[in-house]
Amino acid sequence: MARILLVADAGVPSGFGTVSKEIFERLVREYGHEVHCLAINWRGDSVDTPMRFYLPTQKVPSDIFGQSRYLELVGKLMPDIIFFINDPAIVLNVLTNSIYDPDLVLWRGIQNGDTEYKPPILAYMPIDGYDSPKSWDLLVPRVTRIAMTHFGQATMPEAPVIWHGVDSSVFRPRDKKEAKRTLGFDPDHFLVLRVDKNSFRKDYPDTWRALRPLMRKYTDIDVHFHCLPTAMDGNDLRAFAWNDETIRDRLSFSPDLTGFSGWSIENLATLYAAADVFVSTSWGEGFGLTLLEAMSSGTPVIAQDCSAITEVVGNGGTLLQPAGRIATPMGQDQCLPDVPAFTAAIENYYNSAGLRKEKRKSAIAQAAKFSWDEAAKRTNDVIQSVLPKPL
User: Fold this and answer.
1) Total structural domains in the chain?
2) For position 332, which CATH number holds?
3) Do 141 and 193 lie in a common domain?
4) Is residue 249 in some structural domain?
């Protein structure tokens, strides 16, 4: 058993929040680890979890990422392992360039006479682009890096791969017409779904651009975006669709979403199962958990043939070649979607019940390859590998 300080999204409806819950609750319940979580973006509301949560803003109210509490919690808990779930650039910055750790205590450890306290640091990190900065390799002397996909491992060759999982008892196929009725959609309409964060990288505008000509051509296509319509790091999607006055009423957004709360898992699973196709024009993914959840629900995916998307979607949908690349602030390239190709692919699914049936089966089969139990087992294996061996 190890005492682990986990620094990750937790208690919030984000992808990393799901990963923290599904893997680390298993590490507590099934492997006996003691997990203390500095819960990024958590606001202190009640969460049913075997982990111990710590409020990131306890010391500095504006510090939603909790960097001001790292040294405090390390000194208080003396963890056997520090475990990050975050992007490589962020992990590198907090370990080597934090205003809250000017002496690089986390990096260098603590020396007290002949005694040194320098717990292993593990980081489970997504790689969502190409030609990633070699500066990320500066982590290697101090951090055991873990890749989320084989695509990510190509950037971090020494890193073991641990796929995310999916709960197929929740995200499962259902009768699509009945699922549509349950959520208030027309059961006889073709429903296009997208579920993820409204950020610039996710590129919701190009999803809408791909759908515009089809919605004008066919009056029985409905579109639902499960995201915030406006976001500081994304687009104002209602404004973007406003000029499309003949079709904009067939675009809907999920109510009752905030950056800290979302739909119940049951309602979200019903939404996935109701859709006829899931469309993502994301420029790149470090894994693509919502793609996996859609496939497990029997909904095929249309997405770009790039980054980790290729590995996760496999034959569970249609993968399209990118139109080009774009440089990102983190110093890597990501892929721009071929919008007309997306339009053609969506129309192909709309016109072919046979294709939808075939890809529905393939999507379910592809999703069955991913398991949270296996993810927890592999994470435990890595933890055991870095713990000091008993004398």
Assistant:
1) 2
2) 3.40.50.2000
3) no
4) yes
For residues 322 and 337, what is the distance between their CA atoms, to the nearest angstrom?
5
Is residue 169 a part of any domain in this protein? no
168 found inside a domain: no
Mean pLDDT by 10 residues, the chain (391 residues): 96 94 98 97 92 96 94 96 97 96 94 87 98 97 98 98 98 98 98 96 97 98 96 92 94 84 90 98 98 98 98 98 95 97 98 98 98 98 91 56
- Name the token pair of 128: 């969502």
Please report whether residue 250 resides in a domain: yes
E strand segments, 70-181: 81-85, 110-112, 115-117, 121-125, 143-147
Q: How far apart are the first and last CA of the chain?
A: 16
Same domain for 207 and 93, yes or no, is no
Per-residue pLDDT at 114: 80
In whole angstroms, how far apart are CA 340 and each of 200, 220, 300, 337? Answer: 20, 20, 19, 9
- Which stretches of 81-203 are assigned E, i.e. beta strand? 81-85, 110-112, 115-117, 121-125, 143-147, 190-195
Task: For residues 221 and 350, state if they share a domain.
Answer: yes
CA distance 156 to 144: 10
Instruction: Please give the Cα distance from 44 to 41 (Å, whole number).
Output: 9
In this predicted structure, what is the pLDDT of residue 340? 98
DSSP code at position 125: E
Q: Are residues 214 and 141 in the same domain?
A: no
196 token code pair: 């993820």
Q: What is the pLDDT of residue 112?
A: 76
**DSSP structure class, residue 22:** I
Q: Are residues 348 and 253 in the same domain?
A: yes
What is the Cα–Cα distance from 96 to 88, expressed in whole angstroms? 12
- The pLDDT value recorded for residue 260 is 67
Q: What phi and psi, each to the nearest 5 degrees, are found at residue 44?
A: 100, 5
Which residue range is the domain that position 98 belongs to? 3-163+372-386
Beta bridge partners, 317, equal 301
Per the listing, tokens 């505008």 go with 205
Same-domain pairing of 184 and 99: no
